[in-house]
Structures are given as C-alpha cells and as structure tokens.
Amino acid sequence: MGRKTWESIPTRFRPLKDRTNIVISRNPSAESCSGGILANSIESALESIPEGGAEKVFVIGGAQIYREALQKAQAKRILLTRVLSDFECDTFFPITLGENGKGEGWVRRTKEELDAWVGESVVEGTQVENGTSYVFEMWERIEDTTV
C-alpha cells in the first residue's frame, strides 16, 4: 500500500492483522511505519516479502500504486468493490472495467470463480452500507494469444 493509504487506516487498526504490511513511499525521509515494512518501489516491496514467500500478494492502493502494479505481468486478478453511488472525486482507478464485464485486457469472472479463488463465499449482489451501494467483483487478465 502507499503511504497515504497506510496513514488513512486508523492507528488502532495498523498494521492490518494477519498479513505482512508493506508501505511504499518514494520519500527518502519517510518515517518508518510501525508494524510494517517500508519500501521505496513496487519492486522493492516484492523483494521485502519475508522468507518463505506469500501465497497471495494484494495491492490495496492508492491510485499511483495501482497504476504501477497493474503494469506488472504478475498482476493477474483485480478484486474490485464497484461503488454504485456517485461521489465527487479527484482520484480514479487507473483502468476502465466496464459494468458490461469487459475491460481492456481484463474480463469479469463469475461469483463462483470469485468464491473459489478467495476460498470462501463472498456476499452476492448489491450491498448497501451507510447509504452507499456497491458490489464485489473479480476480474482476470486476459492472456494474449496472438503471436
């Protein structure tokens, strides 16, 4: 996650439980992130994964970190919370994933495929929390079959 994402998490919830927290900041004078690992790039974050590796690596924001991560061949899936309510925003996800299930180089997978990948049943359909409507989706990168 980026430094701003880390700082947006209330202190009492940092670091996020049951996972290695790696915070990316290009600021060489960035303060350490108590309970997390500080890295200066996506590459150094991946190299910072503790010995023994990780079964799954998740990128949780912000926009610049998403943009860089999605350029990597290792980025195979997007777990998307599609917010259906309108908000005034100045930051957006760096690629378009259409509500029709198609995106440039990506395709939306079924709920069953999402459940199988995450290893549990994900709530289906539109959810509403504090007046905000959203749905959970999983997208996979389409393999380029052209040679």
Explain what this protein looks like in three dimensions:
It comes from Hyphodiscus hymeniophilus. This is Dihydrofolate reductase. Residues 1-141 form the DHFR domain. The chain is an alpha+beta fold and 147 residues long. It folds into 2 domains: 1-75, Dihydrofolate Reductase, subunit A (3-Layer(aba) Sandwich); 76-147, no CATH class. 19% of the residues lie in helices and 21% in strands. Strands 3, 4, 5, 6 and 7 form a 5-stranded antiparallel β-sheet that branches. Strand 4 (102-103) and strand 5 (106-108) form a beta hairpin. It starts with a helix and ends in a 6-residue tail after the last strand.
Radius of gyration: 17 Å
What is the ordering of alpha helices and beta strands? Answer: HEEHHEEEHEE
Describe the largest sheet: 5 strands, antiparallel
Question: What is the CATH first-level class name of the largest domain?
Answer: Alpha Beta
Residue-averaged pLDDT = 90
Q: Give the overall shape.
A: globular
Number of helices: 4
Q: Assess the beta-strand content as a share of residues.
A: 15-25%
Identify the CATH architecture of the largest domain.
3-Layer(aba) Sandwich
- Unreliably modeled segments: none
Distance linking N and C termini: 35 Å
Q: How many separate structural domains?
A: 2
The CATH topology assignment of the largest domain is Dihydrofolate Reductase, subunit A
CATH superfamily of the largest domain: Dihydrofolate Reductase, subunit A
Percent of residues in helices: 10-25%
Classification by helices and strands: alpha+beta
Number of strands: 7
